Amino acid sequence: MILIIDDDSAIRSSLSFMLKRAKYEVETASGPKEAIEIIRRTAPQLILMDMNFTLSTSGEEGLTLLRQTRIFRPDVPVILMTAWGSIRLAVQGMQAGAFDFITKPWNNAALMQRIETALELNAPQKETPGSADQKHAGFDRHRIIGKSRALNEVLDTLCRIAPTNAPVLITGESGTGKELIAEALHVNSRRASGPFVKVNLGGISQSLFESEMFGHRKGAFTDAVTDRIGRFEMADRGTIFLDEIGELDLSCQVKLLRVLQDQIFEVLGDSRPRKVDIRVVCATNADLPQMVREHTFREDLFYRINLITVHLPALRERREDIPLLARHFADRQCEQNQLPPVEFTSDALDFLSSLPYPGNIRELKNLVERTLLVSGKTRLTEADFRLCYQQPVHNSAAKLQVPQGMTLEEIEKQTILQAMKECGNNLSQVAALLGISRGALYRRLEKYNLPVGNS
Questions:
Q1: pLDDT of 113-126, one tens digit each?
Q2: Alpha-carbon span 81 to 404, nearest angstrom
Q3: pLDDT tens profile 196-225
Q4: Greater pLDDT, 154 or 261
Q5: Cα separation of 56 and 60, whole Å?
Q6: Span 148-177, mean pLDDT?
Q7: What does the alpha-carbon distance between residue 310 and residue 72 come to, in Å, rounded to a whole number?
Q8: CA–CA dist 422, 429 (Å, integer)
Q9: Whole-number mean pLDDT of the chain?
Q10: What does the alpha-carbon distance between residue 367 and residue 362 come to, in Å, rounded to a whole number?
């Protein structure tokens, strides 16, 4: 049973009609007192709850009712309904334990998608006996290599959420394989036959954001010589993967929140709203909760994208997977370059398993492929890997010295120049040293007209 709580009879009627057509059992309540009576005598599968029940728009009644609901029915998901102008109120509700929020007036298809997601994610889970392989039977690992406990915990979560439409936030250090996880979510979803569109938000400038994401019509601005389809439209009926979402500036965050909320957008130069049906998967190596506290990332956007969070362990936290990964990278490199198969000595695998890997899986992949190609051998030893191993540069940050009395921009430019010198113009290492993404580094190089070094 789905419980609808709203003092507006028209809303109760329209929601009841929509849900009953979808074969759901429905009960309604016009206010907190009636709602609590229903909640105490029966356990709804889901609650749709308004935040205001009198002329007051503070939302205190809704927040109080939500807290009472969490006491009596802590496991029942609650979707809050509020006006767009009161979205801050919805954020307070999410902090109080709500499952999701939707703004009025809503899009029926988007609301039904969220209702189905809430019900699917809160359905009782059947315990699957046996090994991890048996538990993950039928799940396409999509090049996800490993058998460690840390990785199997991630796969357990993926198996459960992949078939749903739940928005997912993938977190973890750079190089842990966030894009691979996003692809696995897509290929194991009901949208697998639709497009999978990847967007590196760290590489899109503020001025081009709307054109890249929503598209434009010819003549919409000076350089718009042809029509352009935006990434959201390209992802219709599929999945859009928003990588490095922590790099997005605040003005673009507002525009993104709008389309994620209602799945409706406007093409630049065309005022006709367009609707899309997409699943949103985001990824970041940034600490978004800290950015929210520092007011550099919108709290309402944070709650919109992280209905489910999947955290990827660093490679140093799953060392038993290193031999499997090394074997995989070597086999793939041999196949791509038509080389004879190679083998690893036990001391080589011990050496690989002992390294710190600040660059995680990406660093291991580069080391294996570089050693294989440079050595030209079919039997790789510890000495071969030691010869090709590049010491991490992260601890050299303390060497950076910046003169006093400079402007912020001068300090930033000087710091980038010193980092490039320290890293021999290797942009991957420069970005890691400075603690920013490569996309953010490219924008700064362009801003200060600095030469692009090696990748």
A1: 889 989 988 877 65
A2: 52
A3: 999 999 888 887 898 889 988 887 777 777
A4: 154
A5: 9
A6: 92
A7: 29
A8: 9
A9: 86
A10: 9
Q: What is the arithmetic mean of pLDDT over 174-189?
A: 94
Q: What angle do CA 226, 204, 175 make, to 5 degrees?
A: 135
Residue 401 reports pLDDT greater than 60: no
Do the beta carbons of residue 269 and residue 229 sit within 8 Å?
no
Question: Is the omega angle on the peptide bond into residue 105 within 30 degrees of 0, that is, cis?
Answer: yes
In terms of Cβ atoms closer than 10 Å to its own Cβ (0-12, 13-18, 19+), residue 162 is buried
Element (H, E) at 20: helix 9-21
Cβ-Cβ contacts under 8 Å for 355 (sequence gap 6 or more): 364, 367, 389
Q: How far is residue 445's CA from residue 441's CA, in Å, rounded to a whole number?
A: 6
CB 110 within 8 A of CB 81: no
Q: For residue 232, what are its two tokens?
A: 């959201």
Distance CA 244, CA 354 (A): 29
Separation CA 214–CA 244 (nearest Å) = 18
For the packed helices 438-447 and 427-434, what is the interaxial angle rounded to 10 degrees?
A: 100
Report the C-alpha gap between 91 and 300 in whole angstroms: 6
CA nearest to 182, candidates 195, 169, 166: 169
Q: How is residue 367 written in tokens?
A: 């080391």
Percent helix, strand and coil across the chain, each to the nearest 5: 50, 15, 35
pLDDT value of position 1: 93
Structure tokens at 335: 């196949």
- The predicted structure's pLDDT at residue 125: 62
Q: Which amino acid is at 55?
A: L
- 432, containing H or E segment: helix 427-434
Computed from CA positions of residues 201, 238, 157, 360, in that sequence, does the dihedral angle turn out positive or negative? negative
- Whether the model clears a pTM of 0.85, i.e. scores above it, the answer is no
Closest CA to 419 of 407, 435, 408: 435
How many angstroms separate the Cα of 308 from the Cα of each of 47, 125, 199, 283?
A: 19, 16, 20, 12
Residue labelled with tokens 């460690």: 148
Q: Which residue has the tokens 């929601």?
A: 15
CA angle, residues 40, 45, 50, in degrees to nearest 5: 75
Q: Give the CA angle between residues 250, 256, 259 to the nearest 5°.
A: 155
